[in-house]
Q: What sequence folds into this?
């Protein structure tokens, strides 16, 4: 379901469950892999990708959610809280992270990709899309906050309200992704970039603290005071 390998200083997490739809079992397997990443020491970074050439992740496991009784997807009641906690964990992971989006990334799959520091997309095929509105779901506020922090305002609106499907080149032009590559070189380029950034993961305390300052409680970007006031009264803002 989740395969984790290490290439030098780069951990490569491969989602290996066909369309990689999110259910409680999948969340827990992903979280267990992150345990290993976080338990490591020294320079490190993470690349997340998929074994499927068609899907990075096709979103929420709707068949599991609508089913009854025992299911390989696991505890339905636990999913919401555990999934959101995992997304928060990815966005504040104390090592650099890159999502190598080698196929469609819809809904929760797109959300997972956005939680990474950097996104590389396949340039010839595949869409990144927050499709909740299309399938009759209201995007939860925590997810909206994630999209707003990660995307330029016009891109944010087209993503969450108009359910725009971003191709690789469009994603780069709009700020959704940083690079687009052919499928055959996508993972190689992502690993190469992750290796360059791995040195930043050597000091987990600093790298993680910076992410908390950007995305965590009382994030600097959300402070009601302007930067001039904060600079003049820097002792009040730690």
A:
């Amino acid at each position: 379901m989740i395969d984790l390998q290490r290439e030098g200083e780069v951990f490569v997490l491969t989602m290996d469950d066909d369309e990689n739809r999110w259910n409680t079992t999948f969340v827990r397997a992903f979280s267990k892999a992150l345990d290993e990443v976080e338990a490591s020491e020294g320079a490190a970074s993470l690349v997340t990708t998929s074994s499927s050439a068609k899907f990075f992740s096709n979103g929420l496991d709707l068949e599991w959610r609508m089913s009854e009784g025992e299911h390989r997807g696991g505890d339905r009641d636990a999913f919401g809280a555990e999934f959101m906690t995992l997304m928060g964990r990815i966005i504040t992971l104390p090592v650099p992270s890159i999502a190598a989006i080698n196929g469609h990334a819809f809904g929760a799959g797109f959300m997972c990709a956005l939680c990474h520091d950097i996104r590389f997309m396949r340039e010839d095929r595949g869409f990144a899309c927050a499709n909740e509105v299309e399938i009759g779901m209201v995007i939860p506020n925590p997810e909206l906050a994630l999209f707003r922090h990660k995307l330029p305002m016009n891109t944010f609106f087209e993503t969450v309200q108009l359910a725009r499907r971003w191709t690789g080149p469009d994603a780069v032009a709009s700020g959704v992704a940083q690079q687009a590559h052919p499928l055959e070189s996508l993972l190689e380029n992502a690993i190469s970039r992750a290796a360059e950034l791995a040195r930043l993961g050597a000091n987990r305390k600093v790298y993680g603290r910076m992410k908390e300052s950007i995305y965590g409680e009382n994030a600097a970007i959300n402070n009601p005071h302007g930067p001039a006031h904060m600079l003049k009264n820097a002792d009040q803002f730690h």
